[in-house]
Amino acid sequence: MDAEFNHHSHHGPLLRLRCSVQKYDWGKTGTDSQVARLFSLNSGSKIEVDRPYAELWMGTHESGPSFLLDAGMENGASIGSQCITLKEWIAKNPNVLGDKVFNKWGSDLPFLFKVLSVAKALSIQAHPDKELAKMLHKLQPDVYKDDNHKPEMALAITEFEALCGFISLKELKGVLHNVPEIVELIGRTEANQVLNMNEQDGEEKVKSLLRSIFTQLMSAGKEITTKVISKLKSRLHMESQVRELADKEWLVLKLEKQYPADIGIISAFFFNYVKLNPGEALYLGANEPHAYLYGDCIECMATSDNVVRAGLTPKHRDIQTLCSMLTYKQGFPEILKGFPLSPYITRYLPPFDEFEVDSCILPRGASTVFPAVPGPSIFVITAGEGRMRTASSKEVVSEGDVLFAPANIEITITTASELHLYRAGVNSRFFHIL
């Protein structure tokens, strides 16, 4: 290897990060998990074959901090590799954020970057908007740990499945016709109100009826829930002998195996079942219901970990809060396919100021440039190896490496093999670049 290429350069602007992993029980297990493979390469730790590895966190959130691998301090004194978090370092060097980011969000990264490996469904959840987050954090700081909102985006690495947002009125009528168990839970009167409603009744009226039946469904008692789910299960098993079950019906049977007798199983009928191909992304605003179901994805969000849960979970549920906070917007979510920024870079631009994500697949012998931007970036290498060069430094990078790049730095990337990486940064629309 050329002597000029440092694995650890103390003078360069790019900072290597050692990241945190979350072993939530819905994660893929051991070496099946891309999160486990990346974490193991990133941290030099062995993969525990029987443990779930759910999320790799890259950023400054206290619940999963990133540490500087070798902090080249301005005076040349290097601090021990475990000591300093990216958050502490940024607080001491806020100029790395660029003025505009610092003025809006203070001396912290406005986004949190993650890789997820999902083996079984996450809880049906929503993330509060700013107003609600402030209130929940004040009332229950042990459950709602910060006062920020959490818009997010998931970009599929493998095929990726999710439940997300409410189905249209037309589809909802279909559900009430075809799923007698739901009618049993919400009552014939409510069901008829939906069946007799049409788009001419106006969006607000439809929303308020949807809110009322969804709240009723989610608040159903344990006993009736167990009974109705058992009916649903045996009906679907019987019908599968004589007809092809719909995707949503297979999903419901799968969820029943994962979370027996959980009201979330029934609520799945109310949500859009979204299947992303690799390279497609889904974004979620505040107060939109969703549950990731299966697959690996790159996720980016505002720096928050606030979650209001109501189903498919053994964890704390807050059904009243969830049901009252949702927007009850209906219809299929927008799928982002990204747009080419340059031949090898695809950009995903959600309608949120805090973040955007770039995907870069660099073939053998190719090179590309990430132009200087007025805000900070985090890069994660997910496959292959290559070199990242700035005006003052060169780094050899390979799978599992995570790097922080300060504002206003142009980065050239080359590879002799093939290189896959993702970049998270502040949304370019925020800087009026696009």
UniProtKB/TrEMBL annotation:
<feature type="binding site">
    <location>
        <position position="290"/>
    </location>
    <ligand>
        <name>Zn(2+)</name>
    </ligand>
</feature>
<dbReference type="InterPro" id="IPR046457">
    <property type="entry name" value="PMI_typeI_cat"/>
</dbReference>
<dbReference type="Pfam" id="PF20512">
    <property type="entry name" value="PMI_typeI_hel"/>
</dbReference>
<dbReference type="InterPro" id="IPR001250">
    <property type="entry name" value="Man6P_Isoase-1"/>
</dbReference>
<dbReference type="GO" id="GO:0046686">
    <property type="term" value="P:response to cadmium ion"/>
</dbReference>
<dbReference type="GO" id="GO:0010043">
    <property type="term" value="P:response to zinc ion"/>
</dbReference>
<dbReference type="GO" id="GO:0008270">
    <property type="term" value="F:zinc ion binding"/>
</dbReference>
<dbReference type="InterPro" id="IPR018050">
    <property type="entry name" value="Pmannose_isomerase-type1_CS"/>
</dbReference>
<dbReference type="InterPro" id="IPR014710">
    <property type="entry name" value="RmlC-like_jellyroll"/>
</dbReference>
<dbReference type="GO" id="GO:0009298">
    <property type="term" value="P:GDP-mannose biosynthetic process"/>
</dbReference>
<dbReference type="InterPro" id="IPR046458">
    <property type="entry name" value="PMI_typeI_hel"/>
</dbReference>
<comment type="pathway">
    <text>Nucleotide-sugar biosynthesis; GDP-alpha-D-mannose biosynthesis; alpha-D-mannose 1-phosphate from D-fructose 6-phosphate: step 1/2.</text>
</comment>
<feature type="binding site">
    <location>
        <position position="152"/>
    </location>
    <ligand>
        <name>Zn(2+)</name>
    </ligand>
</feature>
<comment type="similarity">
    <text>Belongs to the mannose-6-phosphate isomerase type 1 family.</text>
</comment>
<dbReference type="Pfam" id="PF20511">
    <property type="entry name" value="PMI_typeI_cat"/>
</dbReference>
<feature type="active site">
    <location>
        <position position="309"/>
    </location>
</feature>
<dbReference type="GO" id="GO:0009416">
    <property type="term" value="P:response to light stimulus"/>
</dbReference>
<dbReference type="GO" id="GO:0005829">
    <property type="term" value="C:cytosol"/>
</dbReference>
<dbReference type="InterPro" id="IPR011051">
    <property type="entry name" value="RmlC_Cupin_sf"/>
</dbReference>
<feature type="domain" description="Phosphomannose isomerase type I catalytic">
    <location>
        <begin position="14"/>
        <end position="166"/>
    </location>
</feature>
<dbReference type="GO" id="GO:0004476">
    <property type="term" value="F:mannose-6-phosphate isomerase activity"/>
</dbReference>
<keyword id="KW-0413">Isomerase</keyword>
<dbReference type="GO" id="GO:0005975">
    <property type="term" value="P:carbohydrate metabolic process"/>
</dbReference>
<feature type="binding site">
    <location>
        <position position="127"/>
    </location>
    <ligand>
        <name>Zn(2+)</name>
    </ligand>
</feature>
<dbReference type="GO" id="GO:0033591">
    <property type="term" value="P:response to L-ascorbic acid"/>
</dbReference>
<protein>
    <recommendedName>
        <fullName>mannose-6-phosphate isomerase</fullName>
        <ecNumber>5.3.1.8</ecNumber>
    </recommendedName>
</protein>
<keyword id="KW-0862">Zinc</keyword>
<keyword id="KW-0479">Metal-binding</keyword>
<feature type="binding site">
    <location>
        <position position="125"/>
    </location>
    <ligand>
        <name>Zn(2+)</name>
    </ligand>
</feature>
<dbReference type="InterPro" id="IPR016305">
    <property type="entry name" value="Mannose-6-P_Isomerase"/>
</dbReference>
<feature type="domain" description="Phosphomannose isomerase type I helical insertion">
    <location>
        <begin position="185"/>
        <end position="270"/>
    </location>
</feature>
